[in-house]
Amino acid sequence: MGPVVVTCDGCGVRIRIPKPETALDRQCPRCSTPLVSALTKILEAESPRDPILGIELDVSSETPRLADAQPKSSGFGLLVACALVFLGSALMLGLWLAREGELAIVAAPEPSRPKAVAVSVRNPLEPMPAPSEESEVPPAANEATVATVPRESEANEAKDAVAPIAVPSTFNPMSDVLASPVATREPIEPQFKPPVKPAPPPPPRTDPAPASVPPTPAPAPAKREEKRVRIRTKTGETVVARVHGQADGKTCVLLPNGEIGFTNGLAETDEPFHPATREQIRTELTQAGPFADFKFLQSDHYLVLYQSSTPFAEASIKLLESLYENLSDAFHKRELPIHETEFPLVAIIFRTEKQFRAHQPVDADVQAYYEILSNRIYLYEQSDRDQQAPEVAALRKPQTVAHEGTHQILQNIGIHPRLAAWPLWLVEGFAEYCSPPTMTRRGAAWGGLGQVNPMHMATIHDLDDPASLYVNGAERQRLGRDRRKPLVEYLVTRSALTPTDYALSWALTHYLAMQRGTEFLTFIRQMSQLPPLEEQTPEQHLATFRDAFGTDLAKLDKKVAGYLAKLKFDPLPYYAVVFEQPIPGNQIRRATIVSQSPSMIRQWLNQVSDANGGQTSWEVFPHPTRARAQMAAEQWISNH
């Protein structure tokens, strides 16, 4: 693409850009306003890549359109007619059961949930899940040393970031809003796309609405035609619920408030199913119980109950609303069938990590989670650990909100049916793909859909560094190098993910979305058809993946590795810090630490310094990977 002239959104000056496709990170030389918005519009008009979703489509082959599915509609109508005959018979039985008082009792979701139905953030920003011995430097025979990092600090320092991260963003509405959990600046309204009401349609057609129009609700999905039942809840109220799924004698029903419950008996009815309003759900949650003293905020799609600071809650709901609009618009442009959410999307924000964990015991490394049964996301604003690494804590806030928001949105607009057994790499990889953090002049913010995640890239570079073998042993997973089992096969068949697996899931998703766009969209369509409660084994997930992307997984490993090697990002250096201080007894204390956080390093220096000792001295050495920094620290200790 040749040179273009863009107009700065800040000061209005016109700027000539020789190569717009490589200048998304350019800023106005006069007022420093990012030029990404103006450049994106030009690239969107010239390139087959969608700058919002970041998916390149094969322009030589047509993407299936909704119109292609029209013949199925007539068949479906015939099925509905047959079903009505069946329901007419079942109706009499249902009415008789209701008259006799044999209404099924539904087990409404309790505050405590099984792990299988909670999608959580497990330190997705952590560059390296390293055992504590990695950070311990063996003392020399006649030297007094201090341990590099205590075990509890190891996980924290591994997540630390340093210096602003310049990541190009196609859409970053939160850059002026969500800068820091401590800051209480005046919220700035993000530039949401104003809702545009479509004109009255011409003669009936099945083509999707134009891309410039926000997604209109699609026709009700087939599952909404499933049978309805009368349910008596634990509170004694009788409501009309909709059967959501059945398998192995289990029946789950969707309640009017958006929760999912399980029942053994069914009293069918032809009464309509009415989703609860935002006001009804808010009243239900705040009348009594653990959220009675919570404040609330509302938007077009969200209800946020919060104990946190109001600025943090406002920033969170604006980020979530922007995420919803951007995801809906991106799916609509790619002709993925979606529909508007039936229920208000609920987010619960606790003030502190302690309150968050008191409400629901979760693993220590879980920062937030989406609870599938209640259809709510839970997170917190403040943690004592934030002060240990404020740089990463600031980045974690917008990423966590966007990550959990992605889970919730996908399971409410028809992409990921609730309780459908998606492979974990796709569940978490897609959420990470949609939630990268970035640094702006105002602080940490959401980076937008599909941007490069510098924290995950740091993890991947560390995994692929030959020096890591000497530090961590020969059993380390290395990207695209394990001949015994392709990394893709390892990832696709995982039934639980480590923090490193989060980074690898992001990497695989990013590659497929950017380089295999048409196949990836077809794969997502296939996943969206999985029914609730139907078990999928790792072998089935692997077979489905092979059908979608090919059987040569070793070759795919190499392609993923080659793609990642070419991605541009601002590296986050690992700092090897060495410390010396004379102490009483004619001894010298020596210690080291490896960290990415300047704040963490400063705190550590204060902790290891002895007030009764002599003059302290220390040096900081940057390295491209953790392994190299660790080797340098060990070598320094051994030389002294």
Task: Give an account of the 3D structure.
The protein has about 650 residues and is of the alpha+beta class. The chain has three domains: about 5-45, no CATH class; about 115-125 and about 160-195 and about 280-565, no CATH class; about 140-155 and about 575-640, no CATH class. Helix content is about 35%, strand content about 15%. The chain has 17 helices and 22 strands. It has helices spanning about 35-45, 70-100, 150-155, 280-285, 310-335, 355-360, 390-410, 425-435, 455-465, 465-470, 485-490, 500-515, 515-525, 540-550, 555-565, 600-610, 625-640, and strands at about 5, 15, 50, 55, 105, 120, 145, 230, 240-245, 250-255, 260-265, 270, 295-300, 300-305, 345-350, 365-370, 375-380, 435-440, 445, 575-585, 585-595, 615-625. Strands 5, 8, 9, 10, 11 and 12 form a six-stranded mixed beta sheet that branches. The longest helix is centred in the first third of the chain and has 30 residues, at about 70-100. Mean pLDDT is about 75; it is low at about 45-115 and about 125-225.
